[in-house]
Amino acid sequence: MASTTSDGLAAPWRNEYDIACDDDAEIILDEDETSAVCDLVLREEDVSRPCLVSVTYVSDGRIRELNAEWRGIDRATDVISLECERPDDPDLAEGEPCELGDIVLATSYVTRQAARFGVTPKDECRLLLIHGMLHLLGYDHIEEDEAVVMEAREDQLLALARVEGIPDHVELTRHREEQP
Q1: Whole-prediction pTM
Q2: 19-49 confidence digits (pLDDT tens)
Q3: Residue 110 in contact with residue 128, Cβ under 8 Å?
Q4: What residue ranges define each of the domains in the chain, with the CATH number in brackets?
């Protein structure tokens, strides 16, 4: 029997999301909304196998540690994505779930960043969740041509998600290394 995605559409699979909160952080998006945003990205990216994704909210101190450990950058940031498997990995058996990876969000950083951009913390978190999911699916923004592609895809997904308060166009420069 087919399951349904969080948006109520029939799907031959069910994605699973592990949502956690560490340190002094607070969860910004509840489980239903987190699932809906992640399901939207996976559906729109034509991912046809079930995926497992971990979403963890942490303090600025913890994300700084992760940023230093995984990226060699010793400062806090808004979101870090840690990829595990790709849905199109030929080593995965047909129908076998893909352990897509982990998305780590810094609650305080996201809240401050939202204020800087004139949006709500929930709206900023939705954007960053989409951003993190796209990273797990192989998108990047290190090179300018990659940034243009990823930015356009974020815009499309945000429009589909009908996020209130997010500007019509989101610039990925918000997520580049120069940001405080």
Answers
A1: 0.84
A2: 999 868 899 999 999 999 999 999 999 998 9
A3: yes
A4: 3-175 (3.40.390.30)
